[in-house]
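Action item from last week, closing it out:
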Amino acid sequence: MRLLPAPSAQSLRLLFLFIFVMGVAPSPALTAGCPDRCVCDDQLVVQCAGQDLILFPNDLPLATRQLIISNNRIKELPALQLNYLSDLVYLDVSNNTLAEISESTFGNLRKLAYLDLSFNTMVQIEDRTFGPLSSLVMLRLTDNPGLSDIHSDAFSENLALQVLDVSRNNLTALNISTLIALPSLRSLGLSGNPWTCDCDTEDLCLWVLIEGFKFQVNKAVVLCWVGDPAMLQGLITAYRHINSFS
């Protein structure tokens, strides 16, 4: 039987070096280049705030856990690039010029727990926009001056959502089914919107008065901003009547 030649000492050294490198080298996702004008650290945080970016940053490490792109001029969140970041848990896109988002925007971000879309230029939130975000705990959607419409099913699948802030937008009404569908809700921000005194707003006011004890909310800011003493008195009477049986 023919025996293979014994490996040389140099070959053994190269083999051991290769095994050592393969064993300790970080994942390619961690060593991927950091986008221009951004800072990436070994905690998987990518910081691109205040860099006057117009476009969503390219070449983000795939293992990114926190992405901060606030205080730029980004107009669009490209679904294809964003959804490669399947480990993302924190996304701050506040103070940009986003005008539109949809269900496909966040299609693969099932681990995302914090999302800040405040200080943008959105005008409406469509059906199931946040549907894929099954782990979402906090959503800040404040200070979009043109935001006047939130679909009643916009948050219908966000059962983990605990903090929702839609303050200082242009909302005149909000369907209470949007809120009833959130069993984990603990904090609700509604201030600074031009609420209209109609049946939809009356339902919202009454719901806040009755259910407000479950979470932190300033009840006074919801009661029709134009002021309607008769409606206010009716709500208070209804609230007291309901609580007399509790």
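Closing note: The chain has six helices and ten strands.
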